[in-house]
Fold:
Amino acid sequence: MTLPRSSGILLHPTSLPGGRLGEEAYRFVDWLASAGQSWWQMLPLGPPDASGSPYVASSAFAGWTGLLAEPKAPVTANELEDFVARHAFWIGDWAAYAGAGAVAGQVRFEREWSRLRAYAAARGVRLIGDLPIYVAAASADHALHPELFQRGAVAGVPPDAFSRDGQLWGNPLYEWPAHRATEFRWWLERFRRTFELVDLTRIDHFRGLVAYWAVPEGRKTARRGRWRRAPGRELLATVRNRLGRLPVIAEDLGLITPAVHRLRDEFGLPGMAVMHWAWHGGVDNPHALANQRDNQVVYTGTHDNDTAVGWFRSLPRAIRERTGLDAREPHWALIEAAFSSRAALALVPAQDVLGLGSEARMNTPATRTGNWRWRLGRGQLTDEHAARLRELTDAAGRLPGGGRASRAEASEV
Structure:
């Protein structure tokens, strides 16, 4: 997969004014087009948990009807029948799990989402989704297909820069022999569903397809887990052979081994770099501008990071000076630096365009409260913001069709 040299904005639909689709989503697409942006990235679209986390969804397939602008719009019998026929693999499970009205809700979701996606495509804006590697405990997938999941261990990650105790996610782990026995049917259908909704998707915690951290059930932290192997190569080969393409970004952050890089590169998947980490470490720092790669996606920061302004303010003085970023407008300086990267795709959280501080952070890993709540104000993204972002996009050769400094030929994803 070859990405065009381009850029986009990270904004989950819950962060739109009003927190749902409809008029504000269309306005945001218009703003993206006026700003010269080619991509709208969002977080997972499934029904979130009680804390609002889209990474703990009650279905790996269903769209969240809480995003609907018209949640009570009429649905015909023909629409229901057609949807069930096209989504036979999973919609029965979702109906059994979610109860009356579940199928009609998915018809409404598909209707609104398809219209928005077509509107965006007509304006040169494509959609990037996010595929969590794990499903939630007691979700429809876990409850109705327990044979696909392990018992006695749960998901997490070992201690890292985010948490000295690691992160105890608690998600059920896959019983990989059972998936292999079905020729990865559940995964095939999950990818198929994802590609119906978005043009490109990020696989969250991609390294879990090579090896995953298994924590014994009942532990209070993720410290005492162990690595177990996963059949990532076999899985991705099956998906590619059956679906014909892999429009996928590999989230290759954290404790990454050469085996993870080999899997990523064997399938030609772009990995990630994060500018917040570009000035730490030594000459081998993969996030440093000099070490970023063409087939890569560079972020100023992700949904798990502080905002650009909050990050800059938190830096030790020595590192702050090392960045060379303009202290008066560190967010614009960081965007310009990211856009200058050789990485094909540059993505910027909306909070960074606005220059917001830590109060606008979307998520703090290893915490359970205060996340997923940030929301745009109506009119907060202005024409002036769009014009300034478009100018930087043009200067970096990232406008659709190439700007005045274009360094890479665009090709279809």
Observations:
- Residues 145-246 form one domain.
- The first helix runs from residue 23 to 34.
- The chain has 14 helices and twelve strands.
- Confidence is low (pLDDT under 50) at residues 405-413.
